[in-house]
Structures
1.
Amino acid sequence: MENTHIIKGNVIFTKTPQKFDLYENGYIIVENGKVKLITSALPESYKSFPITDYGDKLIIPGFVDLHLHAPQFRNLGLGLDKELIPWLEGYTFPEEAKFKDAAYASKIYKMVVKELWKQGTTRAVVFSSIHKDTTKLLFDLFIQAGLGAYIGKVNMDRNSPDYLIEESAQSVKDTEEIIKEYINKSDLVKPIITPRFVPSCTSALMKELGALAEKYDLPVQSHLSENMAEIEWIKSLHPECTSYTNVYETYGLLRQGKTIMAHCIHNTDTEIELLKKYRVFSAHCPTSNSNLSSGIMPLRRFLSEGLPVGLGSDISAGHKLSIPCVMNITVQMSKMKWLESGRQLAPLSTSEVFYLGTKGGGEFFGKVGSFEEDYEFDALVIDDSDLGDTTLSLEERIQRYIYIGDDRNIVDRYVRGKLITEPVF
Ligand SMILES: [Zn+2]
């Protein structure tokens, strides 16, 4: 058995949202980057293989971020007393325009990739900007870092500032150039079709993007039903469609099991049925949704109806890249939703939000986000000795880490079985 390596420590993961799977002083046998076996007692036949013993530390799956905007890194913490449209116009668009410049993009994108590494986000689904060449730079940095990602060059050909608008045919041409160059370049970093959102793409452009997704069998990401004013705007832009979700469907952008929609806060029952039909992943972004007073996604409903959901930092509408931070705010907002719904939509438990930030979002990448057999070994090693009593139960220790721990507690990071050290750019 080549490439077999054993990792020992206090293993915590979630096979299902309902409960943590815990192995105190457990062993994970990793073969060719994948989990072969997880066990409390090492079988005799594996005793000759190399072991990395992490002692009393916690070993958990790497975090998965299903929605973030890399060019907005410099805007973190700015303008968050606004709502969506004024915030886009005042902060987001002027900053994104700077990514035409390779030197500026290189500087900021290096910071983003390093920060994702630091925060333990081993897989991310990322928006760049409209700019082709600097989007390629972002692909190269992720590949160099050894982190997993889907990266999308953003498309926008209407209702955007003059300095951030594309000519429709050029937008399609640039997108296809990136696809051809990166579709087979790396096993871990892949392209994703990325119309910014309906208001910024003409019907003709959306149709072309749907066709590209079909031609190269690519996933798609965008935004859906974030804000009431946005939804009203879409009604006036697309009288030919029955709903916001139906606009994406009409133009071939809901691909079976291969589409992520960020937010999904204000969908109608019919739209939720459509999301279910296409098995659309929702990226729940609670920090962003509270910062921009967008609303609270009916997450409990999505989960009980079996829709796939992961978590998104949505920087810089979200103010932190940390997925544990998104996890604890998900619990907090679900409690507000519970009260608001007359105690109908039950709040989420710690194991449920942990599941969403690991296996829930990881499903978009395949067998990622868990330590079950055959899952890719993406892992973080957590030293929580400075957070308090380590004689507590493993469940209490992971709960405490999610609420009060941070990147300083992460001592090692693995992606597909490989130890990933800090990117040197
Ligand atoms: Zn977003």
2.
Amino acid sequence: MRFTESFIPTQREIPVEAENISHQLMLRAGMVQQIAAGVYAWLPLGYRAHRNAQQIIREEMNDVGAQEFHLPALSPAEIWEATGRVAAFGDTLFHIKNRPGLVLAPTHEEVIAFIARAHVRSYKELPQTWYQIQTKFRNEPRPKSGVLRGRQFTMKDAYSLDASPEGLDASYAKQEQAYRNIYTRCGLNFFIVGAASGAMGGSKSQEFMVESVAGEDNVAVCDNCGYAANVEAAQSQTQRVNFATSANESPEEIFTPNIKTIDQLAQYLKVPAEQCAKSRVYVVEGAPVLVLMCGNDEVNEMKLQSALGTGTFRAATDEELAKFTGADAGSIGPLHLKTTMRVIADRRLEGAGGMISGANKNDFHLMRLVFGGNVKVDAYADLRSVAAGEPCVNCGSPLRIARAIEIGHIFKLGTKYSDALGARFLDADGAEKPIIMGSYGIGVERILASYIEQNNDEKGIIWNRALAPFLVEILALNMSSELVRTTAMKLYDDFHANDIEVLLDDRPDVSAGVKFNDADLLGMPLQIICGEKNLKNGNVELKIRRTGERIVLPIDNVLTHVQKSTTAA
Ligand SMILES: [Zn+2]
């Protein structure tokens, strides 16, 4: 592609609408243009990278035996009603005003089950994995972060159909390996976290993520062993506390006037905050539950949900606190409660002695509490959010808390969709059973934005060979020089004839400085600089974008050098 014959807009100014570095660079390099909120046009340069990502995905999907479909974006609402997902998606699902009964699909589990119902008859036809690379729609209330969270986007979605749970395990493992291959080939530094399945249902899911300040998730990461988990689920090595001074301690009441917080209490008694147990009362399905935390540790409500086995809970109101405990929020503790209630304590408190907590009497606390001794605890559970620097649950190295972008999500769905839509098969005994499904998604735009988040410098994008719109950019520095013009054109034709993807900056009225800057902004792995001085000696300069390294080469050697070069991988 030649600049003079192409549509390659570049803007050197930082676009005002840019919200993160990848969005900024994609706009400046003319990869995308915003058409409406959350709606982007992919311009030629961007779409070449987009297609490269698609092709890598397609090859890896085909490699594990998945078959490519092309399913409609328009979907009958009734199949979404059948699985309860019109309600589950709520306003995120686009409905069509002048054609009621059709929705714009944000994902395709329902359609896959619908097709499977018509085509799969016997266990002999299973397993199957079906996939597509297609446009998806989500009515994001606040689209943001450029192409990372749009209302229209491209997704690779795959669905496995199996006759047994073991079959699902095998299909899932194949997809997991394909995902690792895809992200590795794309040059992404990624990690995998276990995740809550949310609205998808099913037994197991994993998220593939890349670390980036542009991310929307907080993840605890161990750089030593690779442990990674969303902070809602992350664990660290439990640092239990114990302040016992003798084996048999009995509680002692102390006057603590106007002490409301753990910090005030610790300061007043001149003890560490960890020696104080914080009490929280929740109303769980109508009944009060006392939750005890160590020091200033906060209750992580996702973990509390797992510990309680229900999501139906809320913090008690001030009136309820007084009714259940006899005290206000600052003076609540595990002993002398007015209402008998279940007591759940964080693991750090297991066996802790010498502890201090509220006396359930305003302005009084109790000292010398022993968890599992004079304080009866119904259950200990991991209830706290991990903090940066805490020891990794696997290896003890300090954890980091990082922002991360989700680039893929794989789910073991089970039979939720096949049950709802009647997608069944006959097993070896002739019994009719629902097909066991898995679902596997990758956001194509997210691959590109994440890649740029991880591969840029102050000058622009740094592409690798796998995703680069072009492997080589030729810079014809001074097009009014006959020597520069003819050499650049000849090299361009030679590369083209040898199937090397090449971009030629042959703009006649643009200075060398602008061409250098634009080439660094667009970020092709290799630049071939045709300047008059080198050409007079029969040479051109080859620049590696990632390292900035420049090599002077004889013109006749450039093609073979590029063909052999792996330095710009
Ligand atoms: Zn570790």
